[in-house]
Amino acid sequence: MVDFEGRPVMSSGVGEMDTRNLILMGEGNEMDRYFLYCYERQLHNLHHVSKASGKEFTETYFLFNMAGYNPKAHACLACIPSWIKLVQIYERHYPQLDRNIIAVNSNILLGF
């Protein structure tokens, strides 16, 4: 998917993953690797779109579909260290990758 300027648009369905159960089952490292895979896929798509269009793009849009988001399943106390680690990795290794991060279907309690 690309925007009107041809930049890649990545999307993720946040409510589709039960992060709490993954963490409690000991699958937190696998979840972290999956998110890192998503970052790398985003970089690959950015390179592919740049090559195909002949323009060099350095930023993407990231669209989060928050439908089905549940604070008990996605923001529990056991999940917070994993989310913090993910944000730290993103800031350290993928700075300025996303032009905008957009959350749709989010409720007012999320602060978006």
Short précis:
The chain is an alpha/beta fold and 112 residues long. It has helices spanning 19-24, 28-53, 71-74, 80-93, and strands at residues 9-13, 60-65, 98-104.
Describe this structure in words.
By secondary structure, the chain is an alpha/beta fold. Helix content is 45%, strand content 16%. It contains four helices and three strands. It has a three-stranded parallel β-sheet with strand order 1-2-3, with no helix packed on it. α2 packs parallel to α4. The longest helix is centred in the middle third of the chain and has 26 residues, at 28-53. The radius of gyration is 15 Å and the shape is globular. The protein starts with 8 loop residues before the first strand and ends in an 8-residue tail after the last strand.
Average pLDDT across residues?
82
Large-scale geometry: globular
Side by side, the strands of the main sheet go 1-2-3
- What is the H-and-E element order? EHHEHHE
Structural class determined from secondary elements: alpha/beta
Question: Whole-number radius of gyration?
Answer: 15 Å
Biggest sheet descriptor: 3 strands, parallel
Q: Into which percentage range does the β-strand content fall?
A: 15-25%
Task: Report, as a whole number of angstroms, the end-to-end distance.
Answer: 23 Å
Q: How would you classify the quaternary structure?
A: single chain
Q: How much helix is in the residues?
A: 40-55%
**Unreliable residue stretches:** none
Please report the total strand number as a whole number.
3
* Count of helical stretches: 4
